[in-house]
Amino acid sequence: MWKKKWYLTCHKSGCSNLYKAQQALIQIEVHSLSPSIQTWRPRLDRKNKRAVIEPLFKGYLFTCFDPEKVHTRKIEHCAGISHLVRFANTIVPIREAVMQ
């Protein structure tokens, strides 16, 4: 039976930590997702704007794993990861409808 669920994870600030976290999670076979969005920012050297791709949820990363197979401490000790989001000191999976 497939027990993997999606959980919300905080990564340390900065894009480089997001990439470090994603690479470290790949090494322990945990899937991750960081939705991104394209925005437009004014250029300082010209009058036009430039496209910038940035995370939709800054500081957060969605991780998919089975807590019975991959311990939460293993995820929290990955490079770039700060902690798993908890409610009443328990990690709570994100509803499937939200992830779809």
Strand numbers in spatial order across the main sheet: 2-5-1-6
Query: In terms of per-residue confidence, which ranges show pLDDT below 50 for 5 or more consecutive residues?
Result: none
- As a whole number of angstroms, the C-alpha radius of gyration is 16 Å
Strand content range = 35-45%
Helix content: 10-25%
**What oligomeric state best describes the polypeptide chains here?**
single chain
- Major sheet attributes: 4 strands, antiparallel
Distance N terminus to C terminus? Answer: 20 Å
Based on helices, strands and strand pairing, what is the structural class? alpha+beta
* SSE sequence, one letter per element: EHEEEEHEEEH
Write down the overall geometry: elongated
Helix tally equals: 3
Number of strands: 8
Mean pLDDT score: 92
Characteristic key phrases:
single chain; 100 residues; alpha+beta; four-stranded antiparallel β-sheet; 22% helix; elongated
Q: Could you characterize what this model shows?
A:
This protein is an alpha+beta fold and 100 residues long. The protein is built from three helices and eight strands; from the N terminus they run βαββββαβββα. The chain has helices at 15-27, 72-76, 96-99, and strands at residues 5-11, 31-33, 36-42, 49-55, 60-65, 81-84, 86-87, 90-91. The strands form three sheets. The protein has a four-stranded antiparallel beta sheet. A two-stranded antiparallel ribbon has the order 3-4. The chain has a two-stranded antiparallel ribbon with strand order 7-8. The longest helix is centred in the first third of the chain and has 13 residues, at 15-27. It is elongated, with a radius of gyration of 16 Å. The mean pLDDT is 92.
